[in-house]
């Protein structure tokens, strides 16, 4: 059975097998959580991303974690949807991000995965809706991952994720 925890923290310091980054399509690094992960993992992460990218929205791809501290062995890159008012299938693309990340984690044999709040930063996805989609999708997706950690970057996101988890 998979357990889901919600915590406030820095995803780069999580004690998990794999961390998810909310990437851009190039997988070369960006701002926000993606930038933080790239800084922590070192320049080889962008080099590895460049070799496997581009990654379309809703998909996921993995690279080694490079300079991230063990036990983190993998970075799973996923590209969320840019919010355009909800009329262009953004919710389905966001749900696909979570499903595909779990599928990639299963392929890697990762027993534990940390997720950020995908697409809620510069991509503009409404945080409350994103939290519901994240929790609903992670709960309903079959996986071998035994421990999922949802990492909030601020108190508002923490509250939204906790509310979604309690529903």
Automatic annotation (TrEMBL):
Superkingdom, taxonomy of origin: Bacteria
SMART domains: A1pp
Domain Macro, residue spans: 1-167
SUPFAM superfamilies per record: Macro domain-like
PROSITE patterns found in the cross-reference section: MACRO
CDD domains to which the protein is assigned, alphabetical: Macro_OAADPr_deacetylase
Record protein name field: O-acetyl-ADP-ribose deacetylase (Regulator of RNase III)
Native source organism of the sequence: Plantactinospora soyae
């Amino acid at each position: 059975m998979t357990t889901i925890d919600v915590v406030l923290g820095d995803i780069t310091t999580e004690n998990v097998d794999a961390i998810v980054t909310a990437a851009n399509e190039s997988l070369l690094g960006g701002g926000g959580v993606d930038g933080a992960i790239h800084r922590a993992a070192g320049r080889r992460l962008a080099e590895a991303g460049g070799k496997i990218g581009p990654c379309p929205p809703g998909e996921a791809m993995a690279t080694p974690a490079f300079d991230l501290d063990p036990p983190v062995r993998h970075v799973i890159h996923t590209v969320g949807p840019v919010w355009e008012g909800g009329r262009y299938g953004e919710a389905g693309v966001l749900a696909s991000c979570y499903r595909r990340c779990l599928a990639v984690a299963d392929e890697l044999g990762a027993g534990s995965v940390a997720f950020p709040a995908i697409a809620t930063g510069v991509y503009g996805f409404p945080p409350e809706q994103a939290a519901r989609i994240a929790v609903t999708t992670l709960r309903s997706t079959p996986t071998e991952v035994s421990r999922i950690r949802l990492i909030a970057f601020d108190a508002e996101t923490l509250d939204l994720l906790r509310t979604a988890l309690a529903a």
